[in-house]
Specification:
alpha/beta, Rossmann fold, four-stranded parallel β-sheet, binds the ligand C=CC1=C(C)c2cc3[nH]c(cc4nc(cc5[nH]c(cc1n2)c(C)c5CCC(=O)O)C(CCC(=O)O)=C4C)c(C)c3C=C, binds fe (ii) ion, metal ion binding, metal-binding, EC 4.98.1.1
């Protein structure tokens, strides 16, 4: 029997710094997130980051937390429930870090008799810190606990026409009645090193702004390329004029170079260059979360206004909007009704 496991990033249990510390410990000790040798990673994470960051992060989480819990988890649950209404196969939800765990999600499906699972990382673009770490863990758990279970992975959908259509629609609905001057597409950043590590050709990605436009098989694992493609396709769909939109990368951590341009500096510059009304979309995230609700909708607006900007329009993630639910449900049903277990996107 077929079934689906949706997987998102995860959140702390609560905004208590102790819970935030537990969550950050699991997240940052993942070798695909902080890709240092174990000893160095442990010194950095357990010896330094976990002594300072949890308090600061807990304060940030407290600003966006809902009565029902973490927005990321609540919104993922709503998505799961709605997809469940539209599809004919069991749908489970799991988080890469914290609860509900991937192991529990697989067990839930297994207990319902599911032995053929479509694994759906809830990320439009591939990154080793997101898609890859989910797939690797799910495969490990399958081998250890559910050896009869077949796993099929839904590939990144950053350029899928259905996704691009829904994303474009979510953007236009928010900006059509504003006379915005600039639309910024802000993606979660990753260290430049991650891009090089994921380059299967080992020579394509130069991160110099040109390689991502040159066709290459490296692009199936190039986060930077996939982000720029999402922007390009949405801009094409919305007929945006050159110069009225751009791409940037947010949420950098530490001192290594991350993908540029950085979102905070871009917002600052736009305002300083005289842009009074800007809009911002965050297409690396399917569900609103700390990085969109606090870092963009709150801090981003503050930076814009401090530098002379006047109107800042935050465009929510796809969350549980009906056209997104229907799109995902259609992808799932297409897979569920196929004879073979090939991927469908
Ligand atoms: C230190 C390395 C990090 C990498 C690499 C990274 C990649 C990455 N993350 C997301 C999505 C999310 N990240 C979120 C929070 C978050 N991310 C990092 C660090 C890295 N992320 C930290 C330390 C945190 C925690 C919060 C903080 O202390 O600032 C979230 C929000 C979670 C929530 O509970 O709301 C998301 C979602 C992507 C897509 C990505 C690479 C492409
Ligand atoms: Fe992150
Ligand atoms: Fe590239």
């Amino acid at each position: 029997m077929k079934g689906v496991l949706l997987v998102n990033l995860g959140s702390p249990k609560s905004t208590n710094p102790k819970d935030v510390k537990t969550y950050l410990g699991e997240f940052l000790m993942d070798e695909r997130v902080i890709d240092l040798p174990y000893i160095l990673r442990a010194i950095l994470v357990k010896g330094i980051v976990l002594n300072t960051r949890p308090k600061k992060s807990a304060e940030a989480y407290a600003k966006i937390w809902w009565d029902e819990g973490s927005p990321l988890i609540v919104l993922s649950e709503r998505l799961q429930e709605k997809i469940d209404e539209f599809t004919s196969v069991p749908i489970a939800l799991a988080m890469r870090y914290g609860e509900p765990s991937i192991h529990n999600g697989m067990k839930e499906l297994h207990d319902k008799g599911v032995d053929d699972v479509l694994l759906v990382p809830l990320y439009p673009q591939f990154a080793m810190a997101t898609t890859e770490t989910i797939v690797v863990l799910a495969e490990q758990l399958r081998n250890e606990h559910f050896p009869q279970m077949n796993l099929t992975v839904l590939p990144p959908f950053y350029n899928h026409p259905d996704y691009v259509t829904v994303l474009a629609r979510s953007i236009i609905e928010k900006i059509e009645n504003t006379d915005y001057e600039h639309l910024l597409f802000s993606y979660h950043g990753v260290p430049e090193r991650h891009i090089r590590k994921s380059d299967i050709t080992k020579s394509h990605c130069k991160i110099d702004g040109s390689c991502c436009q040159t066709p290459s098989k490296a692009h199936q694992f190039c986060y930077r390329h996939q982000c720029f493609e999402t922007t390009r396709l949405v801009a094409e769909k919305l007929n945006l004029k050159e110069g009225t939109y751009s791409t940037s990368f947010q949420s950098r951590l530490g001192f290594d170079p991350w993908l540029k341009p950085y979102t905070d500096r871009t917002i600052e510059k736009l305002a300083q260059n005289g842009i009074k009304k800007m809009a911002i979309a965050t297409p690396a995230f399917v569900s609103d979360c700390l990085e969109t609700l606090e870092e963009i909708a709150m801090e981003g607006e503050e930076i814009f206004e401090e530098n002379g900007g006047e109107e800042f329009t935050f465009i929510p993630c796809l969350n549980d909007r009906e056209d997104w639910v229907k799109t995902m449900s259609r992808w799932i049903d297409e897979w569920a009704h196929k004879e073979t277990t090939e991927t469908i996107v």
